[in-house]
Design goal:
By secondary structure, this protein is an alpha+beta fold. It is built from two helices and five strands, in the order H-E-E-E-H-E-E. The chain has a single domain (21-133), classed as Trna Endonuclease, Chain: A, domain 1 (3-Layer(aba) Sandwich), CATH 3.40.1350.
Length: 147
């Protein structure tokens, strides 16, 4: 899925049947995170950007103040049996996300060919957890400038 940068709507391509249930849950978490950021006035520039061997979940612009180009890592966990979702972003993951972001900046363009805005770069983390006791909305936490 990708975002239309002009009106903020997410496109509705069918899910890939080859993806596992866990991958589809992660896709849904990314869609929820993108929708939450759009509702807050952000612009989603790209989703699931591959730079070499690495991937960036979301590339967005936070209107600020101050405005920033934001690389967003989205984490989904169905349970806390092995700790909080935030704890899964270790130094290896941070290194991979940074490498992807700097590689993208070196390219100067997004996958659709549009130029990357010249704004300060920031790395955010959005965590999505399931509903409490199966009722209500998923819990979403947005951590700014986490690495």
């Amino acid at each position: 899925m990708s975002a239309d940068r002009h009106d903020g709507r997410m496109d509705d391509r069918p899910a890939d049947p080859r993806r596992t249930a866990a991958q589809r849950a992660g896709d849904a978490a990314e869609t929820l995170a993108a929708s939450m950021l759009l509702a807050a006035g952000w612009t989603i520039l790209a989703r699931n950007v591959h730079v070499g061997r690495y991937e960036i979940d979301l590339v967005a612009v936070d209107p600020g103040p101050p405005p920033a180009l934001v690389v967003v890592e989205v984490r989904w966990r169905a349970a806390r049996d092995f700790g909080l979702p935030e704890e899964t972003v270790d130094h290896r993951k941070r290194t991979r996300v940074r490498a992807a972001a700097y590689g993208l900046l070196d390219l100067g363009r997004l996958p659709d060919g549009s130029r990357i805005p010249r704004l300060p770069l920031r790395f955010d983390l959005v965590v999505v957890e399931p509903r409490v006791h199966g009722a209500g909305e998923p819990r979403v936490r947005h951590h700014r400038a986490v690495f």
